[in-house]
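Thread title: Can someone regenerate the structure for this chain?

I was given the following input by a collaborator and told the matching structure tokens would be attached. They weren't. Posting the sequence so someone can regenerate them.
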Amino acid sequence: MARPCPLCENESLRPLHVAPVDVGTCARCHGLWFGRGQWDRLADRPPVRAFLSAARVAPSRCRKPGHRVSTEHRVCPTCQGAPVGCPECGQRLARVVTSACELDVCPRCEGIWLDAGGFERLEGVTNPQARPAGVGGTASHRCSACAVEVRGARAFAYEGDFYCARCRPPGAVTLDG
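Best answer:
Regenerated them for you:
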């Protein structure tokens, strides 16, 4: 049975060999799915257990960039979209922030979803400093319009780009919300 991409509607994951494991990849968004036990077979990446405690309390996200869905909400409060789900068990994926990138973790089956480029950014990371998305941290972004550096609640996302409060377009959502 084909597993669905957590982010792309009507897109199935295709097999891809990432030595020494076979993973699922989406042809549209180029994300990678590592099912139960696959991630821990990679010696040069932090173990799944480094992300699990944060994943158990972390919010999810919907398919729209920047939209967070807290554990109290059944749907995205911004667009009413469903939270992203695990391709294997259907459980809501939890958004976890690390020192290298953000990733989605299934607290039930311990699978990991990485957006395009995340796999490479986690190579050689020994202390990922995992925390739930939207909690603490000092992640910063550059405004797509004026290039000013923006942090935390001052950063807004819209259609995959980041903005400061001055440049944010209508419909942009705060990264902490």
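The helical segments are 49-55, 118-121.
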